[in-house]
Amino acid sequence: MAQNYDYDLVVIGSGPGGYVAAIRASQLGLKAAIIEKDKPGGVCLNIGCIPSKALIHQAEVYSHIDELSSLGVTVDTKGFDYSKVFKKSRVAAEKLSKGVQFLLKKNGVEFISGHGTIVSQHEVSIDDEKKVSGKFLLVATGSRPKEIPGFEFDEKQVISSTGALMLEKLPSKMIILGAGYIGMEFAHIMNSFGVDVTVVEMLDQILPLSDAEAVDVLYKQFKKRGIKMLTGTKASGLTKNQKGVKLTVESPDGKKEELTGDILMVAVGRSPNTEDVGLDKVGVKTERGFVTVGDYYQTSVPGIYAIGDVTPSPLLAHVASKEGEIAVEHMAGKNPEKKLSPDLIPAAIYTEPQLASIGPTEEELKKQGQSYKKATFPYRGAGKSVAVGQPEGMVKILYREDTHEILAAHVAGANATELIHELLLAKRTELLPEDIAETVHAHPTLSEAVMEAARAAEGWAIHV
Amino acid sequence: MAEKILMTALSPTMEEGTIVAWKKKEGDNVDAGDVLCEVETDKATMDYEATQEGALLKILKPEGSSSRVGETIGIIGEEGEDIAGLLKEAEKESESGGRGEEEKQSAGEAPSAPPAPETAQGTDRSAAAPEAAKTAGDAPQPGAVRGGGAARGASGIVKASPLARKLADMKGIDLQAVTGTGPDGRVVKRDVEEFSPAAAASAGAAPVAQAMQDETIPVSSRRAVIARRLAESKFSAPHYYLKSSVDMRQVISARELLNKSLPKKASFNAFLMKFAAEAIKRHPVVNSSWQGESIRQFGSIDIGLAVDAGAGLITPVVKNCGNRGVVDIDRELGELIEKARNNALKPEEYTGATFTISNLGSFGVEEFTAIINPPGSAILAVGQTKKTPVVDGDELEIVPVMKMTLSCDHRVIDGAAGARFLSELRDMMENPARVLF
């Protein structure tokens, strides 16, 4: 097959899936190009993880001003200007987006600006103007906020996460529809800056995909902070006027109520960007909008791969990156490990307190009929949490009764998103709770709570 | 002051030894250098010489029992001394599968320090001694890594995740028998879950007499090592095979000629080794070893010959064959084989072959393929020399022909390199004068 292509690999989309894949390809000696219609770095860097974390950090700095007053320091917040917060988040995003551009260049990946559409098994057209060909094509076009009829985004009064990240002025009253992690992270940000926040969730738990017991830790703190959370509540109508928005909601007992606010944020999930990519033209199979992929992320068309949010795996940046690596290694004839196991993907929610998990929730284990045991340890038992004034939290390990294999772990509390990795490494390498239990942890650290939870699984937690 | 007598590594690969016979009884006086007991190691039965002086106060491991390296096998001291404390320690240590501090000391301080135990895969001769010594001094042996109870230590040095170990324990599966598919061959949960012991061979439906009962034959430590080493080689080294037939007329007459002038005839195997060494000199890539990140090309041509020593295979090694004559090689080979048959080979005499020859011609085997003997990367399997009709031009001739098969580790030796070596070897045997080239 002596066919000549412009590139070995053409990647469509330069988010954390696409750009990592392109760089990995170049490391493996493949000539790669990457097509991006917006800015390098995709949603994650530009209108997702990164700017939101910049906002969260500043929100936390701002909300902890109170701590200073207990030291007799009064901070004059008169000069507070949210547009500065916004600008800082943009600086972070731009810095990293440039960083991606630099990395691509350094690795010899060609960056092509424009909208890429697959026109044949080996060809992508760019803005319908020119075509590039590749031995392999990789679809990494990601996802966008899900829009629901009746609540369409105008990005002024009815905003998506993108609109929320682009706010230059704080609203005084905000309604958030959807209490998933995006909704709750913004509830956390806005509440920290003093915005009156109401979250409306149709299911009967905020963060409905997370472990109920762990979520309860967060729920109590959110409530204490004055975030209003209406669970089991349906939004049934929306009216907009110059003054703001009016949302009609229906509580579990059928009672209707009207909520008013300056703006409504709709955060009810994300939709894969699989429409404008030309997938149907070449016969790439999709299911409910998501691309069907094999063990190494091959689509139904030979030579075309798909990774990240366009596939049915969890919509997370770190998942997309890993999938990109696996797909490219497979193209290069390496023997990568197969598809990621969902139980080994950490989920992190950056509220305060934080929530981080691996594996199924306790409710899911019950549903699966899996026999399990549970060990929990409260943050309070680790001296450090008290010393730093964040004693609310817990580490929960779900393990098999017979072998003590770690099935899942949920950490709620300060730094949970960092603490989870010890448990994740243990699970992936098949360490047992006793291995963590017997490992000396530095004192005082929050990690001691992980050790103590593991000891609890072995029946000998000390500080409880 | 009473002291523990520890099982020490009597050979570089020894992980466990079986006490065949105690040469001293409890109460006997022992001088340093006295033989305390005989220990069957992985490859040979060896004398365990005392490094301490005193009275043998207690024998903890009876004849026939096996102990891991570092385990206490007895206690030595002054007569009448109180050894209750030491006994308790020893008991604890065997419970925890233990190799504790004491072992490190024994490996580091014993005056007549026996070759320190090799690391799990350590087969590289040149590095073995210093590295193993370092291992013994700095870190607990692989088997001791987990402090988690006898159940864990019992599986020896098999690389396995803690969960796989626990699962294997619960199911009564010997981890040694499980092939690991995790990182670097680690045994992981799914390996244990998917493991099924080979179905016991059915005796078939013999109508005449009832089949005999299945029999479980305990595996000697030598058998266990052979099994592990060869499996490791076959599963990790990608083998490929090259076959060639050799016209043996010239070798036979050369050997006859030479032997006429010798008081003792040189064996055919010695000739084979000499020819192989000469061919290796011209193709040194064959004399190399895969080291994971690099390839080690050995400076010395040390050729092992697979020998059937009754209780199992052993491969005595004749060192530096490249620079020795066939008579010299034959003399040493004879001595080594004699020792092998008496189970008296020293570890350094049967490990570290850079190239190996296996000759099954005497069994009437025409040709076969052999498994590479690490650290080498190639093994030559030699069949019988048999009169064969050979077409020479338009004539049919009857020629003594020997078939030989070279197994190569493809990671080190590519096909063409192996083929060049093999054809050189064949050409030399067909025309021994080539050795002069």
Account of the 3D structure:
The complex is a heterodimer of chains A (464) and B (437). Chain A is an alpha/beta fold. Chain A contains 15 helices and 24 strands. In chain A, strands 1, 2, 3, 4, 5, 6 and 19 form a seven-stranded mixed beta sheet that branches. A five-stranded parallel beta sheet of chain A has the order 8-15-9-10-11. In chain A, strands 20-21-24-23-22 form a five-stranded antiparallel beta sheet, sandwiched between helices. The longest helix of chain A has 25 residues, at 82-106. Chain B contains twelve helices and 18 strands. In chain B, a hairpin with a 4-residue loop joins β4 (35-40) and β5 (45-49). In chain B, α2 (101-109) crosses α3 (125-138), α9 (268-282) packs across α10 and α9 packs across α12 (415-430).
Index terms:
heterodimer; A: 464 residues; alpha/beta; FAD/NAD(P)-binding domain; Enolase-like, domain 1; 7-stranded mixed beta sheet; 5-stranded parallel beta sheet; B: 437 residues; alpha+beta; 6-stranded mixed beta sheet; 4-stranded antiparallel beta sheet; 12 helices
Kindly report the CATH topology of the largest domain in chain A.
Answer: FAD/NAD(P)-binding domain
Say how many strands of chain A there are. Answer: 24
Distance between the termini of chain B: 67 Å
Please compute the radius of gyration of chain A using only Cα atoms. Answer: 24 Å
Beta-strand portion of chain A reads: 15-25%
Specify the oligomeric state.
Answer: heterodimer
Radius of gyration of chain B, in angstroms, nearest whole number: 25 Å
List SSEs of chain B in N-to-C order.
Answer: EEEEEEEEHHHHHHHEHHEEEEEEHHEEEH
User: What overall form of chain A do the CA principal axes indicate?
Assistant: globular
Q: Give the biggest beta sheet of chain B.
A: 6 strands, mixed
